[in-house]
């Protein structure tokens, strides 16, 4: 067996897809394996996720990551060198022990994730096997159903509309390859329709979606529904809609404030509006419709939207304890999985396993500030997540993940998760 002892760790300040600094990390093993990753960074971050360590000085408007790089080159390297990279839990526990804050604010969640992920990828490299196989040693790779961004607002697009993203899911596709082609067709058709309506389809948001100032949030739903129709695909049968509300960005004194419409709604009024939208449009998934600590409103929404995939992002923050609490409260039915919310690979895997044991659907997700790395696609396959959300069908930090899944489907014996991966599963 190759020697998986960690012999070296290096780190550097890199750039994410928004041009903001992030962290690069490289780990070398005794057996010759090398793991190199660049960590992503979110824009609409919740209150319960791992905390990135930023410099808060004059460089890059305070977003520099030299302090996080110093954490990696200093205490994290000193701790990990000599450890067995094959024991991911022990590696991650050693990293976590360096910080008295569970949110990793001292060493930086961005630094912690860089070391954790680089360790995992180094083991795959040493063993000369794909990353997904390290996580799923015996299974046939499960290619996830894609959830793809078409129109963006919120923190991803200068708040042109309040809703963060309108996405589509190729629910009728029989392969990932077919699904991505369908989605690309819908995006092109939606762009044509937007241009005809007087919008400018050349504007692109953080995740590659169309960005346009529309008359209302509902107008974005109508636009994407029209794009599906124009594409020639079946509305709701071939392609359906997913909505990312990102309500933690909208909550104001316990109510939902829609700034683009100059409207404020109570949680009950807002839930009623979501129910109406779900009846009027081909919506199969709604993400973060309510605040990330408003468990009572989430419970009401879960009762009112039982036939919808109700997806918790900021609510769960890729934290197994919060997922457990949601399960006990019968809140939501699916969990968004973001490795940098957890800050460590093993913590992320715990959130996946906790969700799947309760038959909650899992959706592995990229961030708005992402990178050209494609390890996320392998994590989704290795954890048999069933669904993946990385942005639109353009911008290389997005297509790198789609291209990895296209490669796997073309070159391996695989199965495709398809529509069966959607909640409600229980």
UniProtKB/TrEMBL annotation:
Reactions the enzyme catalyzes: (2R)-2-phosphoglycerate = phosphoenolpyruvate + H2O
The protein's required cofactors: Mg(2+)
Membrane-traversing stretches: none
Protein name per its UniProtKB record: Enolase
Subcellular location(s) per record: Cytoplasm; Secreted; Cell surface
Function: Catalyzes the reversible conversion of 2-phosphoglycerate (2-PG) into phosphoenolpyruvate (PEP). It is essential for the degradation of carbohydrates via glycolysis.
Active site annotation, chain numbering: 207 (proton donor), 338 (proton acceptor)
Domain Enolase C-terminal TIM barrel: 140-424
Organism: Microbacterium koreense
Pfam entry (one): Enolase_C
């Amino acid at each position: 067996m190759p020697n998986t002892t960690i012999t070296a760790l290096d780190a550097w300040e890199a750039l994410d897809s928004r041009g903001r600094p992030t962290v690069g990390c490289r780990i070398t093993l005794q057996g010759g394996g090398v793991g190199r990753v660049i960590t992503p960074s979110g824009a609409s971050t919740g209150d319960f996720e791992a905390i990135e360590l930023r410099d808060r000085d004059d460089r890059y408007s305070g977003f520099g990551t030299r302090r996080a790089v110093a954490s990696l080159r200093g205490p994290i390297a000193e701790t990990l060198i000599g450890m067995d990279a094959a024991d991911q839990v022990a590696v991650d526990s050693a990293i976590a022990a360096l910080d008295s804050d569970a949110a990793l604010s001292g060493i930086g969640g961005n630094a912690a994730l860089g070391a954790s992920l680089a360790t995992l990828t180094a083991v795959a490299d040493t063993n000369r096997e794909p990353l997904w196989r390290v996580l799923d040693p015996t299974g046939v790779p499960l290619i996830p159903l894609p959830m793809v961004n078409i129109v963006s607002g919120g923190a991803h697009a200068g708040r042109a509309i309040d809703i963060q993203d309108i996405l589509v899911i190729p629910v009728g596709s029989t392969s990932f390859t077919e699904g991505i082609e369908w989605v690309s067709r819908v995006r092109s058709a939606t762009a044509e329709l937007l241009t005809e309506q007087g919008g400018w389809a050349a504007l692109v948001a953080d995740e590659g979606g169309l960005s346009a100032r529309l008359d209302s949030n509902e107008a974005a739903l109508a636009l994407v529904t029209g794009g599906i129709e124009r594409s020639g695909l079946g509305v709701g049968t071939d392609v359906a809609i997913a909505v990312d509300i990102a309500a933690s960005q909208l909550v104001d004194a316990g109510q939902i404030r829609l700034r683009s419409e100059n409207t404020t709604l109570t949680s009950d009024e807002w839930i009623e509006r979501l129910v109406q939208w779900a009846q009027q449009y081909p919506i199969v998934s709604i993400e973060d419709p309510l605040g990330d600590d408003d468990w009572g409103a989430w419970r009401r929404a879960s009762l009112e939207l039982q036939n919808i995939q109700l997806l918790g992002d900021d609510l769960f923050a890729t934290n197994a304890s919060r997922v457990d609490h949601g399960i006990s409260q019968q809140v939501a039915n699916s969990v968004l999985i973001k490795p940098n919310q957890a800050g460590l690979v093993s913590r992320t895997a715990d959130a996946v396993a906790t969700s799947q044991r309760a038959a909650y659907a899992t959706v592995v997700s990229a961030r708005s500030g992402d990178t050209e790395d494609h390890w996320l696609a392998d994590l989704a396959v290795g954890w048999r997540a069933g669904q993946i959300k990385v942005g639109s069908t353009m911008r290389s930090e997005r297509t790198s993940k789609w291209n990895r899944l296209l490669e796997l489907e073309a070159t391996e014996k695989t199965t495709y998760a398809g529509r069966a991966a959607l909640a409600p599963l229980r």
